[in-house]
Design brief:
Blueprint (H helix, E strand, L loop, with lengths): L17 H11 L3 E5 L7 H9 L8 E6 L4 H9 L4 E4 L4 H12 L4 E2 L1 H13 L15 H11 L4 H8 L3 H15 L4 H10 L7
Parallel strand pairs: 1-2, 2-3, 3-4
Length: 200
């Protein structure tokens, strides 16, 4: 009801459990999937991994919501490929922002957990060392990397660095290619896990 009331957002399907949600998403190919962490038959993490995980050839945009403010849920959801993570008390405006951000290739994580999440990324290294890019990042790409890791949108980066929106998009695409990642969340995770960026 909240999303259907938002201009420019249309709910194309609803599902009673995770398996059905994955089936519908694969058939209908919506711009964004919105999953609860706790769903019958297949939870939100597994559903996200099925549609947006590392082994998915054509990943879909997923936003995960939950009533449980637990770090392991956040980390698991982002590792599974989610582009956004919200608590259910985030409110209609933030929910709509998260859906629109995911549809546009951006990521939105609930502000209440962002700082803690990034601290966790910086404080615990990955299971295996991150592979450094074969082709070194340019000075501008390093700047873009930091702003993406700080959660800035493309428009905010363009304003902050005084460059065009298309230039930002080009650099972000180049970063994804060089780092071997598929979305902005993974760029941010790479930046924190390689100590390119540290929590403030």
């Amino acid at each position: 009801m909240i999303l259907d009331a938002q201009p420019g957002i249309e709910v194309v399907a609803e599902a009673a459990d995770g398996h059905r949600a994955v089936e519908l998403a694969r058939r209908l190919r919506p711009d964004v999937c919105l999953f609860d962490i706790r769903m019958p038959r297949c939870d939100g993490i597994e559903a996200t991994r099925s549609l947006a995980g590392p082994d998915v050839a054509d990943p879909m945009a997923v936003v995960v919501i939950t009533t449980f403010d637990l770090d392991e849920y956040v980390y698991a959801a982002l590792r599974a490929g989610a582009r956004g993570f919200l608590l259910k008390d985030a409110g209609p405006e933030l929910l709509a922002q998260a859906v629109r951000a995911a549809a546009g290739g951006d990521a939105l994580i609930a502000p209440s957990i962002t700082a803690r999440l990034l601290s966790a990324f910086a404080g615990t290294g990955p299971a295996q060392p991150r592979v450094q890019p074969i082709e070194p990042l340019t000075e501008r790409e390093e700047e873009i990397l930091v702003t993406v890791a700080r959660g800035r949108t493309n428009s905010e980066i363009a304003d902050e660095l005084h460059i065009s929106l298309s230039t930002v998009k080009s650099h972000v695409a180049s970063l994804m290619t060089k780092l071997g990642v598929r979305n902005r969340v993974e760029i941010a995770m790479w930046a924190y896990e390689t100590n390119r960026v540290r929590p403030r």
